[in-house]
Amino acid sequence: MMLSRVTRLISGARRLDPGRFLDTGSQGSRSLAAHPGNQAPDDRPRAVSRTSEKDPARHAEQHEGLHYDIPLQDMRTLFPHSLPPRFSMQVKTFSEACLMVRKPALELLRYLKNTNFAHPAVRSVLSGDVFFNPSALDGEKGTGKTLSLCHVIHFCAKQDWLILHVPDAHLWVKNCRGLLPSTHNRQRLDQPIQASIWLKNFKTTNDRFLSQIKVQEKYVWNKQESTEKGSPLGEVVEQGITRVKNATDAVGVVLKELKGQSRAGRFRLLVAVDGVNALWGRTTLKREDKSLVAAEELALVHNLRKMVKNDWHGGAIVLTLSQTGSLFKPRTAYLPQELLGKEGFDALDPFVPILVSNYNRKEFESCIQYYLENSWLQHEKAHTEEGKQQLLFLSSANPGQLERLCAHL
Amino acid sequence: MAAPCVSCGAAVFYRIFLGGRVSLARRQGVWKAAAAELQIGAGSQILRLRHTTGVTTKKNVAALRRETYTVEFIKKQIEEFNIGKRHLANMMGEDPETFTQEDIDRAIAYLFPSGLFEKQARPIMKHPEQIFPKQRAIQWGEDGRPFHFLFYTGKQSYYSLMHEAYGKLLDIEKRQNQLQAKGLFSENTKTKDLIGSRWLIKEELEEMLVEKLSDQDYAQFIRLLERLLTVQCGAEEEFVQQFRRSVTVQSKKQLIEPLQYDEQGMAFSTSEGRRKSAKAEAIVYEHGSGRIKVNGTDYLLYFPVTQDREQLMFPFHFLDRLGKHDVTCTVSGGGRSSQAGAIRLAMAKALCSFVTEEEVEWMRQAGLLTTDPRVKERKKPGQEGARRKFTWKKR
């Protein structure tokens, strides 16, 4: 009873002051509970870490460094599978998903917004058919590339785009069991499990589009089943999920259809691939005769490569280069040339590299503030300047390291 | 009756017994044997042969405590030492006349280099007096009478020393009384410099007197000497100084690196550090923002483990200068932990030049400026590692 009263008091305080949270130190939550009406500002300067701006479209430079939260239902639809495991643990702990608005994401959003308003028929003379160059988020390990990608995806979802999100391309080139020779093309290999998982998540994210988009040609799966021309894309996806053997082909079909139909302009397509350097790297998969599989021999990879190439328009491609799950790459590699290799670099060229770097001073303070507000930092020195300096030194302002430092044991 | 064999009257042959306490029983036994031989000849008093065969025939356990070196033996050793010294000087190409003990030590260290850690296990060549333990010469004469009047106390040197010291004390007091009576007593309060010296320890005193002492004896002696000191007379100073040893004051002075200035006028300081087999050199700039570069890469990338970065943080955190200095360092050798320790030491030493002397002293007390002497311990034969023994099998 007491506890419920306390929580109601806290939520009451929140309602009073929706946008701003005062910095009242580590006793913040307790004092808020005790004196709900005591919203009088302290003598200490307010350190703000949150913004009430929920719509990514309206995020601008003044929101830089602040956290905004994504409602949990959106989280379940948009990111059924795709958050980094540590972040999803944090979401579960704090029971809210807060992303920090940072410069690289803002830059991407601005880029997207500008091209949004451009006439779809405009073609850049210099680059031929290209409507939009893919942009690649690159940076050192733990700097926040994946979460920036999630921010962009949230924006596009709010703008009602169709989202094609591959959470981690590295999962398709390692630790796969059950490789089958492809039904479509004898030389390639199928990955039924990974394809079916991806199709399920795709369905969750883009449910409303699946009935609207119609398939352009007839696809025959096997002797009994086929999909007629003009039937909704949802059927293809269902086919892939139910008949796991055909899942990879279903994925290929989906990708081809979407690419073809986005030109028509009925919907905007966002292709977001995390860890795109996996598509051009080595794999650790072997056939039954223990011969190594090259990346292009996997059907999923082949289709995705076609998707990522900028020979279609009506949407945007946002990529992330990541060393974290990569195979056979040294830990210190983070530049696009190193991670993609010559082949990948040529295939993706031209693209816009966006560097994601460590926190600057303001972002660091904001992150610490966020943790303090959620009573995550329990050390008594955590809210002092000295403690913050120690954390800054030990993590060297790297977001991933900071999170690990502040995490539970 | 077993009277002392002195009453035998016969010529007693004696052997030179060099060695600690020659027990009375043994002597008696020998003389008994001697007396037994002469018994037939003496005829005056028949000595009842005590059954002391057990003592005579078996080796005396008490004398086994120390090997007995005869005087000739020691003399021979000294001669050999001197000849050897001249040979050594010849070998080294130096003048035999002016060849000192330090020269000998250096020559031996050069000719017989040893990697043993224990200094006393290395080859030494010293004067036999320093090598062979001091032994007491025979303390009684031909007639068996001891030379010293305090012989029968058992600790003759100790008691004679106490006697002497007390005698001096009484002398001083008498003189002072006389002076006071005459009215010429001047309170000369010159305190001797007692700092930097300490009293002899019990082992040293035992060595000096070649006698075993008990703790109470030692304490008594020191009390007497302190009483002598309080009386404040200049005359007996040398006597008291014999029993004081100097104590080397551990120099607390930390070598502070000089500051250097680079082209832009920024002050910086360089120093080195070592840990196990890692060597590091650090350049600490006076003004900066807390960036550290190790071998050209950021310290976050070079030390992915938090523990190593905590080691790097320690000197700055201790001095409260966390974001104020820039550091560039190079490190080689060792493993990740020893490289971190080496860099920490190098940074701390370099920081000394930017910091007050008091803070340098605090750092020294915190252990930031001391090279960690721990190195990998040698593996011994018959064991699997340095300490680990092979698996013990009962059969």
Automatic annotation (TrEMBL), chain B:
Which InterPro entries does UniProt cross-reference here?
A: Ribosomal_Su5_D2-typ_SF, Ribosomal_uS9, Ribosomal_uS9_bac/plastid, Ribosomal_uS9_CS, Ribsml_uS5_D2-typ_fold_subgr
The record's region (Disordered) falls at: 372-395
Which cell locations does it reside in?
A: Mitochondrion
Q: Which UniProt keywords apply?
A: Mitochondrion, Ribonucleoprotein, Ribosomal protein, Transit peptide
GO cellular component term of the entry, any = mitochondrial small ribosomal subunit
Would you say which domain of life the source belongs to?
Eukaryota
Q: Which SUPFAM superfamilies match?
A: Ribosomal protein S5 domain 2-like
Q: Name one GO biological process term.
A: translation
One annotated GO molecular function:
structural constituent of ribosome
Record-linked PANTHER family? RIBOSOMAL PROTEIN S9, SMALL RIBOSOMAL SUBUNIT PROTEIN US9M
Q: Identify its protein family.
A: Belongs to the universal ribosomal protein uS9 family.
Q: What is this protein called?
A: Small ribosomal subunit protein uS9m
Organism, as annotated: Crocuta crocuta (Spotted hyena)
